[in-house]
Design a protein that fits this description.
Layout lengths: L1 H9 L5 E4 L2 E4 L5 E6 L5 E6 L5 H9 L2
Antiparallel strand pairs: 1-2, 3-4
Length: about 60
């Protein structure tokens, strides 16, 4: 997941979005995914982008 979001942020065209019919370029793109929680149910997990893998992992492990 980290390497994917690094690639997305490294390529300007991957940071484009269409809002109100206009192309917008974002400085950073964050990611989200589904994760299995303690009750064996799926939940959404938001992971903010960071340049350092260690920071990304720390944020992902927070409960």
């Amino acid at each position: 997941m980290y390497q994917s979001i690094v690639a997305v942020n490294a390529i300007e065209e991957f940071r484009y979005r269409i809002e109100d019919g206009k192309v917008v370029s974002y400085d950073k793109i964050h990611c989200s995914t589904t994760a299995l929680n303690a009750n064996n149910l799926f939940a959404f997990a938001f992971m903010p982008y960071t340049d350092k893998f260690e920071d990304f992992m720390f944020r992902c492990k927070k409960k």
